[in-house]
Amino acid sequence: MITFNKISKKFGKLKVLNEITTICQKGECIALIGPNGSGKTTLIKCILGMVIPDSGTLTFDGKSISGDWQYRDNIGYMPQIGRYPDNMTIGQVLDMMKDIRNSKELDEDLIRGFSINKILDKRMRTLSGGTIQKVSAALAFLFDPAVLILDEPTAGLDPIASELFKEKILAEKEKGKLVLITSHILSDLDDLVSRVIYMQDGSLIFHKSVDELKRDTGEERLVKSIAQVMSMNYE
Predict the structure, then answer these.
(1) Residue 84 predicted with pLDDT over 90
(2) Do 21 and 7 meet the contact criterion of CB atoms below 8 Å apart?
(3) By C-alpha distance, which of 159, 164, 118 is closest to 137?
(4) DSSP characters over 193-209
(5) What is the CB neighbour count within 10 angstroms for residue 216?
(6) CA–CA separation, 178 and 105 (whole Å)
(7) Is the whole model's pTM more than 0.90, yes or no?
(8) Can you spell out the DSSP letters for 101-160?
(9) pLDDT tens across 110-160, in order?
(10) Predicted pLDDT at 35
(11) Angle formed by the axes of helices 129-142 and 159-174, nearest 10°
(12) Contact in structure between 25 and 77 (CB atoms under 8 Å)
């Protein structure tokens, strides 16, 4: 689905991505983890076309994304911090995005599940951080994309909303979609992910299945396996 072949990127003298090579397949929920400054955000921005690699190739569904933009119609992106026009209502934001995307296939499960449909007249500047997260989540899933990229998706959500969201993520994975998640809340990953990509200092340290990672670390829970790997790489 998404193939990285020796993707490298520098900002000035700082090398933030160092020949990243891996494949992310359909039907997988992949955790992209690593310490701050490891290159996770830059890699995501490369997928979104917001950062152009200095070298290497990135293909989406078998086609190079270089010089293309239409592939992004197949991606739903949830940023860590959603920023929206203060004076617009939730309903206006949703309508604006629908007009821009002009898609007939809409997935409004989260709009209903989070009860966003009951507060469409509220202005964005009046919303709590958790409610903004719900709007961002609903927008990411709204156009039924083949790929979902979720940056700290459960941060700020209450426990009930978090569980509902995780159920939705798993349901989309079961439909054969590719889900990429970055999160510092390791406990949220236990029930979600099937594979783990670990990055450090701009390099891809490993890309393993959850079963492989548990076997290699001798841990039964994913959160403990990841914690062990991160502690070893910090030493």
Answers:
(1) yes
(2) yes
(3) 164
(4) -SEEEEEETTEEEEEEE
(5) 13
(6) 18
(7) yes
(8) H--S----HHHHHTTGGG-TTSBGGG--HHHHHHHHHHHHHHT--SEEEEESTTTT--HH
(9) 999 999 999 999 999 999 999 999 999 999 999 999 999 999 888 889 999
(10) 85
(11) 10
(12) no
